[in-house]
Amino acid sequence: IYQLTWESHKAYLSDGDGRLLKTLPYRGEGWGITTDGERLFLSDGTSTIRRIDPETFVTEESICVTLDGKPLDLINELEWVDGSIWANIYLTDAIVEIDPETGVVLGYVDMPRLSMYRRTRRGICSLWSRYSKTRNRRNARCIAYSTFEQRYDKL
Hints:
By secondary structure, this protein is mainly β.
C-alpha cells in the first residue's frame, strides 16, 4: 500500500497489515496515486500526471492532462479503472476519465447533485463525517470505484 504526503515529499510503502516497509522521497506535492498493477501514477495538483517507478519512486515519464486541447489543472485523487485513470478536479463536482498514455480527457462527468445530496444527508460515509468536522467541507473530495458493483462514487 502506497501513501503520499501532501507537502512533505515522502511516500510510504506499507504491507497489508499496515507495517511500514519503506519511506521513499519524491519531488512535488502528493495529491493522488494509483496503479495499473505494474506502474504507479502520481498527481500533484497541476495538469501533470507522472508515471513513477514503484521501487525507486523516480519519475519515468510525465503526461499533461488536456481537455479540448488545453491543460486541465487541479488533478486530484486518482483511480485506475479498466485501462483508464479517473480523477476528480479539485474544488469542483467533476471527475474525468484520462487516457494514461496521452493525457487526453476521454470523459467528463459533472455531478452537482451529489454535492447537494452530501449536504442534505448526515453521515453519508465515515470518512466524510470525520473530515467535515475538522476541515472545510467544500474541499473534501474523493472517488471510490467498486469493481464488484462496477460503479463510481464521488464523496
